[in-house]
Amino acid sequence: MATGTIISLGLYFIVMLGIGLFAYRQTDTNVEGYMLGGRQLGPAVTALSAGASDMSGWMLMGLPGAMYVSGLSAGWIAVGLVLGALANYMLVAPRLRVYTEVANNSITLPDYFENRFADNSRLLRVIASVVIVVFFTLYTSSGVVAGGKLFETSFGLTYETGLYVTAGVVVAYTLVGGFMAVSMTDFVQGCIMFVSLIMVPAVVISELGGIGASIDALDTINPALFDAFMDASTNEALSVIGIVSLMSWGLGYFGQPHIIVRFMAIRSVKDIPTARNIGMGWMIVSIIGALMTGLFGLAFVTGNGNEIDPETIFIYLSQILFHPLVGGFLLAAILAAIMSTISSQLLVTSSSLTSDFYQAFLRRDASDGELVIAGRVSVVVVALVAIYLAYDRDSTILTLVSNAWAGFGAAFGPLVLFSLFKREMTRRAALGGMVVGAVTVLLWIYLPVEIGGQKLGEWMYEIVPGFILSSLTIMILSKSGSPREGVVDTFDAFQTKLSEK
């Protein structure tokens, strides 16, 4: 590995650890400070933290790879994600920030569900927590694997060493600084990703002789690359169902715990419009950069007579077109994407284990200091399990990420939306909607049923039926009973406080 690349990566790791130490000194020692940053995140940190924890390695590897193979038709998923993220800022962010505070200062999503519906049985909390712990442990493992493979293919280290380096740095700053460290490192990582996704496609286009020459080169390869309604990899037209499936990724935003927890932590509802503008601007520019990297990267690779794994196009270009010092910075962007998501998932899982299991069932009178320690121990435990799972490369199939996204989106998405808007929603409806959404996704993935020769998940993305059936369940069950005592009063108090903001 070139010296310049090593220097860039070394500086990156030092900065991440330094931020963790800084956050440790700035964060309150109570549980709200460790898990929500004391609800004091500024709009810029909120926006880029939400974006960086959302995008993960798919922004720099998966999306460019899809564009490389399928052309503009892969852009429908980007359209759906942008619309979903915007709706999340508009519909969920301000209401969830206020309601979680009104509902007994809820710190986690399961905590909010229990307090919102006065669930004394704690069944809502338990089911939601199990979903979070199971899916996020596997999700975290997939991120650790991505880091391991990056170190193995780009840095000449063993796969196992890559696992421990990736997880070790993330655990270090998450363990020390908690939510504030995760959010601040996400902010820096989001900036790195943003700059990288502007630099790489710009240099590629320049190398190809400008935008006109780049388009001509792609047209020579395959004119279908510019047809948004045709899959260039098969030269077959996309069906309406196919387009809906791609765009439906946007529905997942309403139920992603590691994203919407940022809305719970922002310092004021008045900061949300600013956070929305920053976050959406960052997202749109970054996604366009990722799409252009894949599309024009294809022209560059083909013109040089090479063949590569499509998902490594960003890595390939960063090493071929840039000085090693800059190339190291660009590789750090991939690590930033991977680590920002791992850290968020670690903290959400840790928060759930601490608040929703340890405090709720084992130590109800635990002090804030004890809960912070329990949270830190949980971070280490989850990371070790993730590393263990990552040793088996086949255990982190790429489709697991999309399945987990669909599972969270269908189980939690309708529940979050209805809980924030439907005054008469009942506990039974919340339980039913969550279970139906999760079960529908699992059945859609694993049932041996085919439509037109395609498995159900290939025919339509599982989040669509899951989200629809969960929503219908909530609406039907809410009409068959009444909210528990005090639930409507709390909703009215929430509405009043929201209007005052």
Q: What's the oligomerization state?
A: single chain
Number of domains: 1
Secondary structure class reads mainly alpha
- SSE order: HHHHHHHHHEEHHHHHHHHEEHHH
Task: Kindly state the number of beta strands.
Answer: 4
C-alpha Rg (nearest Å): 22 Å
Which overall shape is indicated by the principal axes computed on the Cα atoms?
A: globular
Give the helix level as a range of percent. over 70%
Number of helices: 20
Described by strand count, sense and barrel closure, the largest sheet is: 2 strands, antiparallel
* Proportion of strand residues: under 5%
CATH fold-level assignment = Sodium/glucose cotransporter
Distance between the termini: 54 Å
CATH architecture: Up-down Bundle
**Mean of all residue-level pLDDT scores:** 82
- The CATH superfamily bears the name Sodium/glucose cotransporter
The CATH C-level name is Mainly Alpha
Spatial order of strands in the largest sheet: 1-2
Low-confidence stretches: none
Please summarize what this structure is.
With 501 residues, this protein is mainly α. It is built from 20 helices and four strands.
